[in-house]
Write a structure and sequence with these properties.
InterPro entries: Glutathione-S-Trfase_C-like, Glutathione-S-Trfase_C_sf, Glutathione_S-Trfase, Glutathione_S-Trfase_N, GST_C, GST_superfamily, Thioredoxin-like_sf. The chain is built from eight helices and four strands; from the N terminus they run H-E-H-E-H-E-E-H-H-H-H-H. The radius of gyration is 22 Å and the shape is globular.
Length: about 250
């Protein structure tokens, strides 16, 4: 007469079977890889750059369409929300860059940029929230010179607009930037590498594009060395740029 399996053996077998089933259903619920991806945005980094980096990191071929600002007023009328980027996946139009980069992070490549583990994904979302906080703080300083009416300003002269822009941006660098960078440094110190752990995620690419933009010299009254007091952040920017998957990127 055969003896019954030991409870521990049954438990081990059951756990293995459950894990195998989970992997099977996960792999089979993932959509087929797209045949054609087309990204349309201006010929700047902006909010589309995090997508470009995600595509490059995963080795995904995509058509990178750069539109001229002079063509935008007419094109704007055809956009769902009156804005770009526009992502076309096998002909299907996708909108909103945050939704796009989450989709790309999960369903392209191996999914590591937007992990499925609940706590790992929570951490990514926490850091995406930090990116949102920084953006909300910085946006009035950026758009005061570009779209002052949208920011609640009405200037009597160009000199007045320049003076207000200068004051707001210098105040941001002096008063707001240190706090934001402290938050970022706390995360980098905890992980020793990227903002969510040992490997990059969409949160790194999102924050990278925001933070690096201040150092490029095209924003008046924001010095290119504004990150010098934060060497941990500078080192993190360098780590992102040094990722072998981004080796073809011209910085």
């Amino acid at each position: 007469q055969n003896s019954a399996p030991m409870p521990s053996a049954l438990a081990t077998f059951g756990a293995a079977a459950a894990a195998a089933a989970a992997v099977y259903f996960y792999l089979n619920k993932r959509p087929a890889k797209p045949k054609k991806i087309k990204l349309t945005y201006f010929n700047i980094a902006g909010v589309a750059e995090k997508l470009r980096l995600a595509f490059m990191y995963y080795g995904v071929d995509f058509e990178d369409v750069r539109i001229d600002f002079k063509d935008w007023p007419q094109m704007k009328k055809t956009m769902k929300y009156g804005q770009v980027p526009l992502l076309e996946v096998d002909g299907q139009q996708l909108f909103q860059s945050g939704a796009m980069v989450r989709w790309a992070g999960e369903f392209l490549g191996d999914g590591s940029l937007y992990p499925s583990c609940p706590m790992a994904r929570y951490k990514v979302e926490e850091m995406m929230g930090l990116a949102d906080d920084i953006t909300r703080s910085w946006t009035p300083c950026l758009y005061v010179a570009m779209r002052p009416a949208d920011m609640g300003h009405s200037f009597a002269s160009d000199d007045e607009k320049k003076a207000t822009t200068k004051a707001m941006r210098e105040a941001f660098v002096k008063d707001s930037l240190p706090g934001h960078m402290k938050s970022l440094i706390n995360e980098l110190t905890a992980t020793g590498a990227f903002v969510c752990g040992a490997e990059p995620t969409i949160a790194d690419f999102t924050l990278f594009c925001i933070v690096r933009n201040w150092t490029l010299g095209h924003i008046d009254y924001v010095p290119t060395d504004c990150l010098a007091p934060f060497p941990e952040v500078v080192a993190w920017l360098d780590r992102v740029k040094a990722l072998p998957q981004l080796g073809a990127k011209k910085w």
